[in-house]
Amino acid sequence: MRETTLTPGDLIYPMFFHAGLDAPRPIGSMPGVSQLPVGQARAWAKDLLARGIPGVILFGLPEKKDACGTTGLDPDGPVPRVVREMKDAVPELLVMTDVCVDEYTEHGHCGVLKDGPRGKEVDNDATVEILAKMAVVHARAGADIIAPSDMMDGRVGAIRRALDGEGFADVSVLSYAVKYASAFYGPFRDAADCAPKFGDRAGYQMDPGNAREALREAALDEEEGADMLMVKPALPYLDVLRDVRKGTTLPVAAYNVSGEYSMLHAAAERGMIDLDRATLEVLTSIRRAGADFILTYHALRAAELLQS
User: Within 10 Å of residue 263's Cβ, how many Cβ atoms?
Assistant: First the structure.
């Protein structure tokens, strides 16, 4: 009689690979999650598929950063290297790559900066050019899905044109179409070492009070050629997730973000909740709201629970 199901096949595991590590480095604000060395990519690929988890989304941490995030275009950077290793080890594993410059810029913003009338501001068009190049680098490495998370205007169309122009018409685009300027990203910024050094990201991420804007953003990305749409974060925006699901025939993802993950662990550590039950309840609620698949740091434990 259950209306909504949850299986390991509904989950995508986000992973952080650091170019300068030889051993995992635990992330203090995210229990059970670590920055990983590139050399462990093959073993992880095999382990994930054995758990029934069909795919990953990769975030890279370079050894050096600059103002424009140029190391994100390095074909031997951490993400392209991990893509090659994973696809060689387990070709059937679905490998998604995050496309954004925040992990590669010394200032931590999701775009390159220029001088504006009120000081430094993100240069949308210059950033889009870099994102399109980064997408091609990831596709050449073997990525199945490109996932731009920057929220620059026009980036989906630019990435689609760049991929098609380089012969990667079969590489899909999962757009972070609806990404809010959220308080729930804090632990991720520890994991990816990408907290803004000044200001915030409210100028290019969405206002938490806006729901109709989400439908416009999703529709624009669909028109530009997105193959899948994402809502991020998940739990504070289940109503938006439901509205986006009703407004498109494309697959819809939800990102169960770092703050949502860590707050369950914090409550469980204090004896306030049963972590395993809460984890499955949260993930089921996201599926019930309309997500076809969920990006979540709970994926490893959830898969164990669902198969036990």
Answer: 15
Q: Where are the alpha helices (DSSP H) in the chain?
A: 41-50, 78-89, 124-141, 155-165, 186-192, 212-224, 238-247, 258-269, 275-289, 299-307
CA 213, CA 308: separation in Å to the nearest integer?
Answer: 41
Q: Catalytic residues, which ones?
A: 179, 232
CB atoms within 10 A of CB 89: 15
> Which of 109-113, 250-254, 285-289 has the lowest average pLDDT?
109-113
Domain count, the chain: 1
DSSP state of 92: T
- Give the C-alpha separation, 17 to 35, whole Å: 6
16 belongs to a structural domain: yes
Cα–Cα dist 205/268, whole Å: 31
In sequence order, the β-bridge partners of residue 148 are 99
Question: 174: part of which helix (H) or strand (E)?
Answer: strand 172-179
> Domain limits at 259?
8-307
CATH of residue 40 = 3.20.20.70
Can you read off the two tokens belonging to residue 217? 């953003």
State the CB neighbour count (10 A cutoff) for residue 267. 14
- Region 78-104 average pLDDT: 95
Q: Burial letters for 49-86: b for 16+ Cβ neighbours within 10 Å, e otherwise? A: bebebbbbbbbbbbeebeebbbbbbbeebbbbbbbbbb
Q: Does any domain span residue 3? A: no
Neighbours of 91 (CB within 10 A): 10
Between CA 299 and CA 10 the distance in angstroms is 9
Q: Which two tokens stand for residue 239?
A: 């109503």
From its phi and psi, is residue 32 left (phi > 0), alpha (psi between -120 and 50) or beta? left
Task: Identify the pLDDT of residue 64.
Answer: 85
